Amino acid sequence: MDHGPISRSRERRSFLRPKPLQSPVLPSPPLLSRDLVVDLHTDSCPLTTKNFLKLCKIKYYNGCLFHKVEKDFLAQTGDPTGTGTGGNSIYKFLYGEQARFFEHEIRPELKHSKKGTVSMVSAGENLNASQFFFTLRDDIDYLDEKHTVFGMVEEKESFETLEKINEAFVDDKGRPLKNIRIKHTYVLDDPFDDPPQLTELIPDSSPDGRPNDEIVEERLEDDWVPLDEQMKPEELEELIHSKEAHTNAVVLESIGDIPDAEIKPPDNVLFVCKLNPVTEDEDLFTIFSRFGTVTSAEIIRDYKTGDSLCYAFIEFEKKEDSERAYFKMDNTLIDDRRIHVDFSQSVSKLWGQYRHGKKNQKDKGGCFKCGATDHYAKDCVGEKDGKKYVLKDENTQRGGHNNHKYDMVFDEDRLDREQKKRRVHEESTRKDRDHRDSDRGHHRSQNNEEEGDNKSRYDEKERDHRSRYDGEERGHKSRYHEEERGHKSRDRGEDENRWRKEIESREYKSRERNEGGDRRRDERDYRKGSGERERYKHHEGHRHNRDYDKRAHREREERDHRR
């Protein structure tokens, strides 16, 4: 989106169109390369319009975001930080920090009554700096006498630009989701003289792009165009496939299937399959050598049995030779089998180069017949002492140090050596086990003897300890019994004294009872004679019963005590 506020005085009606940006080949977004032409009220607001014109001259507004757009209300800009809290007036650059803000120039005749009105944003009373806004509809009267109106948008094209800004999608804070910037500013007419200090502030060339002071998060720029509008459907589909392939390669690298995501299979290696099990490496080497120099021909074999797995890799010295062999040998007969030839997709051969820092080195190859690396098979004069097949660089991918570049190539000599090594290892393991068993038996017998001696000494000590313990226990028991007998004798003496006292008390009470009975009989006789027996009959019955109960209770206590 390209638009630039272009200032001009109302006294002079000259026009100068801004230079449009280079248009891409494909259609541009709606807001790209659009202009805003502004007429300034230089007579009514000289302080404000001078500030605006001089800031435009020093290219202060270049790259500033429209950091706030409220639909059908206003569009605010002029802050290089993009936050809405920054900005300086031209007077700060000329006279210092104390002149950062300047006063209002509110005029009663200048109102926010029309769409496209240009007014200053203030941080408070008489706190104007660099920020300003455009009104996006008519009759916003409640902004009058609060903000300084210093200009008006003119021309139909400018109103169309404001309408596009008004339709921008914004977030919850009012910032457009797709950046809207002031690309350049051009002054058509300036009635104010330039201060001497202003010359030093004017840059040699008009700045472009994001301001250095901008601190807000990055978003899509206004000149961003979707890929589906830039490319043809076929090109876009190919691009998508290439990105998916790269993503899959990164996954394979992370799980250890390939050494590097950017690696490519070698273009001079052919993959041959559907071979006859009787076909040998020398046969393939001879057959494919007629297309060019073959550096290696390897049939992949089972690592246990050494049997052919019926596929092989043929490596040529030149890429052109491999291409000729591919076109000529595909679907041909070898040992009564119709083979299939394709370019290899295996990168196993390159593991050693990536593991050992040889990524940029070329494989020197070697002789297929004798295994030497200083010449090729066509220059070989005879077999040397060495391995039957060409061994590749070390490959630590599979955890070993003698693996082939093509993982499953084994020869009979190697199998014999491995079997011999396995037998030697088993024999040494068995001897070590027998030696450990004999040592274990000797140590066990010594341990048994020592254990018997220790047990006899322990039994003797245990017997001595038990005898001492039994003697002490018998002494404790005898002393306890003597003390118990003494306690019992004392208890019996105390019981006899207590019984004696109880008997004496009983005898005394019986005597008192006999005497009381005599008195009661005399009283009954007296009352009987006097006619008062009936009066005290009930009382006598009560007392008789009470005496009987006490007597029965004493008798029960005596019986219980005797028991």
Automatic annotation (TrEMBL):
InterPro entries: CRIP, Cyclophilin-like_dom_sf, Cyclophilin-type_PPIase_dom, Cyclophilin_PPIL4, Nucleotide-bd_a/b_plait_sf, RBD_domain_sf, RRM_dom, Znf_CCHC. It catalyses: [protein]-peptidylproline (omega=180) = [protein]-peptidylproline (omega=0). GO terms for molecular function: peptidyl-prolyl cis-trans isomerase activity; RNA binding; zinc ion binding. Signal peptide: none annotated. Residues 35-187 form the PPIase cyclophilin-type domain. Its EC number is 5.2.1.8. Keywords: Isomerase, Metal-binding, Nucleus, RNA-binding, Rotamase, Zinc, Zinc-finger. Coiled coil: none annotated. GO terms for cellular component: nucleus. Residues 367-380 form the CCHC-type domain. The keyword RNA-binding applies. It holds the Pfam family RRM_1. It is found in: Nucleus. The keyword Nucleotide-binding does not apply. Residues 1-22, 392-563 are annotated as: Disordered. SUPFAM superfamilies: Cyclophilin-like (SSF50891), Retrovirus zinc finger-like domains (SSF57756), RNA-binding domain, RBD (SSF54928). Residues 1-14, 404-440, 453-537, 546-563 have a biased composition (Basic and acidic residues). Residues 268-346 form the RRM domain. Belongs to the cyclophilin-type PPIase family. PPIL4 subfamily. PPIases accelerate the folding of proteins. It catalyzes the cis-trans isomerization of proline imidic peptide bonds in oligopeptides. This is Peptidyl-prolyl cis-trans isomerase. It comes from Rhynchospora breviuscula. The lineage of its organism: Eukaryota, Viridiplantae, Streptophyta, Embryophyta, Tracheophyta.
